[in-house]
Structures are given as structure tokens and as C-alpha cells.
Amino acid sequence: MTTTLSADAVNPASFGPAYADAYDRLYAAKDYDGECGFVRAAAKNHGCGTELLDLGCGTGRHAVTFADLGYAVTGVDRSEAMLARARERAVASRVATKLRFDQADIADYRAGRTFDVVTMMFAVIDLQIGDAAVRAALDTARHHLEPGGLLIFDCWYGPAVLAQRPSARVKRITHPEGTLLRTGRGDLDAVRQICTVHYDIWWMPKGAAARHTEEHQEVRFFFPVELELLMARAGMVLRRMCDFEHPEQPPSEASWNVWCVAEAV
Hints:
With 265 residues, the chain is of the alpha/beta class. The chain has a domain of 177 residues: Vaccinia Virus protein VP39 (Rossmann fold). The protein is 29% helix and 35% strand. Strands 1, 2, 3, 4, 5, 6, 7, 8, 9, 10 and 11 form an eleven-stranded mixed sheet that branches.
């Protein structure tokens, strides 16, 4: 079976069952504990409480980890396939009562309440293509924060993307049920600040026919002054930007991903 998604369709909130089936296997080794630990440390240092809104929550790995850390979490995603897995994960956890999941587009989601911390994890902001989409996502975040609340997110860092350039990559995951193989290549549009990533995903279950899925995903990257202006327009101040893998260090041309911490004003 082959599923081809247009670039407009490939927002993490719109990934359907084919992608959701592969998602958790592809990112099983991702350091969810470390990433949620960074958010917790930043929020505690700022004096934030424990009500957290996770925009673009996907299959709920970050959300459940946040709940394990003591947060009451509302996760939002547009994809019912991804949310189905998030709800299954919540039920299987020991913190189900601290988790709620809403199906909605983060561009216009409104919970009717505020939170202490809003997160957009795993480059959710990078998948908002076009200024209007980015502004809408940031407006949603700001709408759910009182002054002094924090928005914490990670994104692709423009200076590093231009310095390193996209390269072809292959990822192979061996699973008791079979083998997952993903190849990827990126086409860079420096003027539009977009990298179009082309994925081929093969799921080869044991004793069954292989399945092939294609994904074409546009990813936006950002520059520091641009982010400062976007935050100001949304009623926030960018308080901190640091290397994603080494948060104690400022970003550099080696920092493909960065953390950003913004305060609502």
C-alpha cells in the first residue's frame, strides 16, 4: 500500500493512520524524559505552576511524561489517528487522571481557560507554513497564558540549517514484529526558509507483505531576530534561546535545533 500526502496535508496534526502506525517506532529512542525535564526546569526556575497545555501533542509521549512529572496536561492535536494512540497511552499509564486530549487545529483552538505553561514540542512550530499559520499558533499559545506564563518550544535554527544544509538520511528500526526502514532527503528553499523533506517508509512485518508510505513534509526554520519579532507581535518576550542537545550552551551554526522560552507580557 502506498499513501502519498501533499505538502499542504503534512502537518503533524493531520498525519493519518499510516504515519501514526510508524511514528512511535521511528522515535522510540527520542529523549522524551530529557526534553520534558528541560521544560520542567525552565518552568520551575520561572515560578510557574503545574497546569500545562501541549499544542500539537501527537501520540502523547511528551504529554504522559509531563503528567509523570506532576503536571495536569491538556494535549491538542488535529489528527484523530495520533490522538487515539495518545489516549491509549494515557489509559495504560499511572497518570491517566492528569491527562486530557482534545481534537482541534492549534490555529484556532480555545480551551476557555488559561495555563501556567504552553508547549509546542518536536518542532511543531516549524510545521506551521506561512506567516499567518505561525502567527495563529503563537496567538493560541498567548491566549492561554496569563502575564508571566511561559511558552516553551523547539525549532530548527536558521543559521545552522544554512551552514550545514540538509543531507540524505536512512533510519532502520528492528522491532519484534518486523523491520521499519525510512529514507529521507531534503530540498532547501533558503528564500522561503523552507526545507521540503521527502520520506519513504517501508514497514516489513514478519510473515506479511511489506507496506510502503511516502511523506512529503515542509519544515520552516527560524532566525533569532525573526523569533523576537514574532513573539513581540503575539504579546510575548523571547527570554531564552539555547542549543537543544546542550541547553547550557548558546545556539551556534552546529545547533540544528534550539530551545526557545518566551514569557507572556
